[in-house]
Amino acid sequence: MFRSTCAGITSFAIAIICSQAQSQEASPILFTNVNVFDGVNETLIEDANVVVTGNLITSVSTEDLAVAGARVIDGGGRTMIPGLIDVHWHTSYCCAAQSTVVTGDILEIAIRGAIGSADTLMRGFTTVRDVGGNPFATKKMIDAGEILGPRILPSGPPIGQTGGHFDYRPYQAVPTNSADSQWYWYSVGLMAMADGVPEVTKRAREVMRMGASQIKISGGGGVSSVYDPLDVRQYTLDELKAFVEVADTYNTYVASHLFTDEAIQLSIEAGVKSVEHGFLMSRETMEMMRDNDVWLSIQPLLDDEDGFTFDDPFSQAKWIAVTDGTDQAYSMAKEVGVRVAFGTDILFDPALAERQGAFLAKLQRWYTPYEALKMATSINAELLELSGPRHPYQDGPLGVIKEGAYADLILVDGNPLEDIDLVADPGANFDLIMKDGVIHKDALN
Fold this sequence. Notes:
Elements lengths: L11 H12 L5 E8 L8 E9 L2 E6 L9 E4 L4 E4 L1 E6 L8 H6 L2 H17 L2 E6 L5 H8 L7 E4 L4 E2 L23 H4 L4 E2 L3 H14 L4 E4 L18 H13 L4 E5 L2 H10 L3 E4 L5 H9 L3 E4 L14 H11 L2 H11 L3 E3 L7 H4 L2 H6 L7 H16 L24 E4 L13 H4 E6 L2 E5 L3
Parallel strand pairs: 1-4, 1-5, 6-7, 7-8, 9-10, 11-12, 12-13, 13-14, 14-15
Antiparallel strand pairs: 1-2, 2-3, 5-16, 16-17, 17-18
GO molecular function, one term: hydrolase activity, acting on carbon-nitrogen (but not peptide) bonds
Pfam families: Amidohydro_1
Protein name: Amidohydrolase family protein
């Protein structure tokens, strides 16, 4: 339950939500007259009753239920769906302008990330896999009920090589020597750099020591970085294997930023289990992913009204090259049968972060509404399970509505299995949002 520190959030609306959450009793909640999308099956469970006790779902039934002492909520025929999951989210990067990274400090980044986390939850995203940044304090305070936000499976600072995707140092920062202090953003854990097997091993262990659920690295060129063309392979096979070995010692896995064939194939050989992006790979590489049970964590990034813009023309050209591959990557993934997960990768733009649900709706370009919703719920939850014992939420399954699952629920005014655009405007269409058995939005009353 939320504690009195919720009142410290400055937004008046959020303060009201916190007050409502605090006032809830520990008695069960009985939802009646709801049509349930369970996260797995396309057919709705019509006119259902759902019981939440504590933070878990304790019954899903089409029979009339009488629950002693329960608070009864009439769903009015609305569609109940599991809380949404974004597996490529950046708590620290999503909601601060890029200029903040140049002129700000870690306190500003953390505060903006915490404020943005409340907004993320109110968009219906009750769980995120954070694939780069320093969200540990934000996660700790969310889990303690001190601030609002989604469940976070943190990767901690993403690790890259000198001249790689996470090398944002000024041009004059090299050459370096072993006596040099770390660049500011490396020293505060917003990102990390490692070169050579010993340093890779040390940095990976440091990230796990911080509390990471999985390790995030960059094995190939990136868009927003200026020293690495897209075709560049980053890290040698031995270095990649060192990352994977450290992850394995913690019974978790490595996710890697990758776009191109050679970089992806080398990463698969090393044992990487989640390819982040992958827009420019061939069918052969995708089949290699499928045959090695490697996930494709891809985002519906297009050069459209939500397209990213970069001051650097080199980065802008790379953005066009990457987004030119989006259609083919999604279509090929469906044909090949590789396991695909949904994420957004929104960076340095609080206004664009508000479009998180609209990014999910973009999946209708390649998937049916059912396929899109299943991906953003139960399928994404399966990817999160790769963290094994490092998964911080193990009281029940995520991404589904069934007995024993976490009570992360949304009541939608309409049927998103028929109209996926409903998720693009959660403010208008999500009438109730529950996370961990606590109601954070209730527009029914």
